[in-house]
Every structure is written in structure tokens, then in C-alpha cells.
């Protein structure tokens, strides 16, 4: 299902973003104040936000899968004559 694919991609994006965040944090710690440190800090913040957004996508895809299962169950019950929904 497409939702599972999206969820796997979001999980991979989240993992990469977390690693970028860790690396940027370590690099920024060793830099003197200035333009380069600001850029690295910006990358760190961007990575943190990307990881959060990827987690939101994963959560949304979980909900989509749950809804899909419920709709499928409803339709199966409706068309199989059980009438339960």
C-alpha cells in the first residue's frame, strides 16, 4: 500500500535528519562564534524540524492505514450481507 511506502520513506528521512542534527551539533560546538557557526546552527535547527515533520507524516500514515482497514471492513461487511459496520 502507498501509505506503507510513505511511512518507510518518512522513517528514513527522520533517521537521516536526526544524524544530521547530531553532526551539526557536534560541529557547531567546536566552532568560534561567527557566520559559519550560524550556518551550522541553522542546519541543526532545520534537521530537527525535518525529523519532527517526518514523525508527523509517519503518524498520519498510521491513521490512514487504520482508516483504510476500517473502510475495507465496513465494505466487506456491507457487501457480504452481514450488515454489521
Oligomeric state: single chain
Helix content: over 70%
Helices and strands, in order, run as HH
At CATH level 2, the architecture is: Orthogonal Bundle
- What distance separates the N and C termini? 23 Å
Mean pLDDT across all amino acids: 92
Largest sheet: none
User: C-alpha Rg, in Å?
Assistant: 21 Å
CATH topology: Helix Hairpins
CATH class division: Mainly Alpha
DSSP strand content = under 5%
**Treating each run of at least 4 consecutive H or I residues as one helix, how many helices?**
2
Overall spatial form: rod-shaped
Structural class: mainly alpha
Number of strands: 0
Low-confidence stretches: none
How many domains? The number is 1
Write up this protein:
This protein is mostly helical. It has a single domain, classed as Helix Hairpins (Orthogonal Bundle), CATH 1.10.287. It has 2 helices and no strands. It has helices spanning 2-29, 35-79. α1 packs antiparallel against α2. Residues 47-77 form a coiled coil. Keywords: Coiled coil.
Amino acid at each position: 500500500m502507498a501509505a506503507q511506502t510513505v511511512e518507510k520513506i518518512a522513517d528514513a528521512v527522520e533517521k537521516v535528519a536526526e544524524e544530521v542534527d547530531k553532526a551539526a551539533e557536534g560541529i557547531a560546538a567546536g566552532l568560534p562564534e561567527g557566520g559559519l557557526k550560524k550556518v551550522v546552527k541553522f542546519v541543526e535547527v532545520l534537521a530537527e524540524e525535518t525529523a519532527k515533520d517526518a514523525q508527523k507524516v509517519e503518524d498520519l500514515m498510521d491513521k490512514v492505514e487504520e482508516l483504510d482497514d476500517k473502510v475495507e471492513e465496513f465494505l466487506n461487511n456491507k457487501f457480504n450481507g452481514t450488515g454489521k459496520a
